[in-house]
Write a structure and sequence with these properties.
With about 375 residues, chain A is of the alpha/beta class. Chain A has two domains: about 110 residues, D-serine dehydratase-like domain (Lyase, Ornithine Decarboxylase, Chain A, domain 1, Beta Barrel); about 220 residues, TIM Barrel. Chain A has ten helices and 17 strands. In chain A, strands 1, 10, 11, 12, 13, 14, 15, 16 and 17 form a nine-stranded mixed sheet that branches. In chain A, strands 2-3-4-5-6-7-8-9 form an eight-stranded parallel β-barrel, surrounded by six helices. In chain A, strand 2, helix 2 and strand 3 form a beta-alpha-beta unit.
């Protein structure tokens, strides 16, 4: 990591070393409130996805505002959040292998821990390890609606649920029905159709579970692109949005639905113009190691005429068609293409309010891949 | 970061937790030797690019085998390598801003430090800061041959060189003529044409410098895709290859030239099959936070019938057309699409020889963006 920080609390925004990951606290707090208000009174809980921010300070704020807990993707990520005081963590992923399962079970002495399953063998392994440790683990059956992991909807879901429910060391907690590809479908109609399909899959699976005399307590899923649809589906009772706290360029490229909440860009990569080789070209010091390009290039904030054309490791090439192009040494704010992997490149989030740095938050679960 | 390591020295390869970044030490050492042999007797030095590995243990090995020093892209990256004992570091990038320049100058008390320039103002700033500190900094003029940073070849190069040479606190060290886009042109003929162009630009720039009565000690550039061309150009006397130590999928996709050295894949992402939702589909636990996808998907090592189709944050989707598809819990080795940003996702490189873990090397400059 860098031997020094990009900024310290009390610094001015203009003094931040670059490239650095910045959070606009005012916009961030408004995003938190929008989410809490959108779910209030609907009988739908927020289980905030922490893979987006990997930052305990943010998770604790989400829980303080009513989130039931968090989800994350990895056992090591869960360990970081449990250590930081989060008491309800769902690993929204399949976990296989005795070593990993033992680490998962060990977390259950300090928090409620859930995990997904889509096959019998890992369920049996987990049951045995949990029993030996005297722990009880929440297990959700993942229903395949997005062509990734999961069992087919309906009877196969119920069959695996029954297996889980048969172990004293496991608790069948419900269904995980997450439609990933739906999140970034550009039109509201496409997103609505995709979540309509996911909802149908959830219903047929729940009915199959109930027909076996099992309870189906929680139906969880959804992301920032679709969670209002799941909220209003009549079957989901938990949503897992994560990116709403930051909003990235890729989510902003979605055409809003009529009831869109207007989440604001709160996360930025601050960068400096380090070269001006021609009138139309500016090179900035934030490349693909500073802003992940898996979902496309970042966007220059507040400058529609400056386009971030391409990234190499530590260079970003901008094309400038505005009357007043950026000058050498000027600092710009970029909106990352995809917030999750961008945050994962940084050890710290520099939090600002107005023109002052208010706090520096460690991205404690950065790089927690195991 | 993860609260635990993926492996410890002495562990068996099969016990490594996943996803993890692995280095095959035998292949790595053969790559180091191939490079040293290829340059021996040609009057061309290796200045190994450390942005690829960010790992002092590797830089020290490169220097022990004859590299004059390293290059890197950032001041904070340079600081990590100077701290680790590297005594000659070229920052192959423009550096602007008083704060950053002061940190650069501070490194010069412990190592020879070089930096690039393509504009007058930062040169004057650097000269003043270096003079105040009583330091002397090597400055190279960057010649624009790849449509990124740099001044146009010829007279503009000489003009900036003369400005640099006029400051007692700076030393005009030569020309930086790096053709980035040439590195991944697929045919040997295209790469040769591109480096022919870069060589012409270097010559006209050197001649303009010499015509002013200035020395032009070093002409530096080249990457893993083209360095034999620069070696044989008759004008370059330093090459900056970095990826050769690892070799990634994108470099292996280049069609080899007749004199290709046959660098081997030495770097792998080890991953586990965590879901087998259908006969043809396998989901692994290494997604885009485990293997950067900026240059395309990783490749499954030693299994031509298993194709890594797409990545989400923590999932990789494989399509399997082999007679024996992977089984749940099986570990696979992936060849990353692009080694540099993939290494930057990890805190440690797990080094193995045969079926045993021999060492765990900290990626000390991981995340050094400033």
């Amino acid at each position: 990591m860098s031997p020094w920080s990009a900024a310290r609390p009390g610094d001015r925004l203009t003094d931040v070393d670059t490239p650095a990951l910045l959070l606009d606290l005012d916009a961030f707090e408004r995003n938190l409130e929008r989410m809490a208000n959108a779910l209030a009174g609907h009988g739908v809980r927020l289980r905030a996805h922490a893979k987006s921010h990997k930052t305990p300070k943010i998770a604790l704020r989400q829980v303080a505002l009513g989130a039931v807990g968090i989800c994350c993707q990895k056992v090591s990520e869960a360990a970081v959040f449990v250590e930081a005081g989060i008491r309800d963590v769902l690993i929204t992923n399949e976990v296989v292998g005795a070593g990993k399962l033992a680490r998962l079970v060990a977390l259950a002495s300090r928090a409620r821990i859930g995990v997904l399953a889509d096959a019998a063998a890992p369920v049996c392994d987990l049951a045995q390890i949990a029993a030996t440790a005297g722990a009880v683990i929440d297990v959700y059956v993942e229903v395949d609606v997005g062509r990734r992991c999961g069992v087919p909807p309906g009877e196969p879901t119920a069959e695996l649920a029954a297996l889980i429910a048969g172990f004293a060391s496991l608790r069948f907690a419900g269904l995980h029905v997450y439609h990933g590809p739906a999140q970034h479908k550009r039109s509201a109609a496409e997103r609505s159709a995709a979540i309509g399909f996911a909802t149908d899959c959830a219903k047929v699976s729940r009915d199959a579970v109930l027909a076996r005399g099992l309870a189906c307590e929680t139906i969880t899923g959804a992301g920032t692109g679709t969670f209002l649809l799941e909220r209003d589906s009549g079957i989901y009772n938990e949503v897992q949005a994560g990116s709403y706290v930051f909003m990235d360029r890729d989510y902003a490229d979605n055409q809003p639905a009529p009831d869109d909440l207007g989440f604001e860009h709160a996360l930025f990569v601050r960068t400096t113009v380090m070269s001006r080789p021609s009138g139309a070209r500016a090179i900035v010091d934030a490349g693909l190691k500073a802003s992940s390009v898996d979902s496309g290039m970042p966007k220059v904030w507040n400058h529609p005429g400056w386009r971030y054309l391409k990234a190499s490791d530590e260079h970003g090439v901008l094309e400038c068609t505005e009357a007043s192009p950026p000058v050498l040494g000027e600092a710009l704010m970029l909106i990352p293409g995809h917030c999750d992997p961008t945050v994962n490149l940084y050890d710290e989030i520099i939090c600002f309010r107005g023109d002052r740095i208010e706090a520096v938050w460690p991205v404690a679960a950065r790089g927690a891949l195991l």
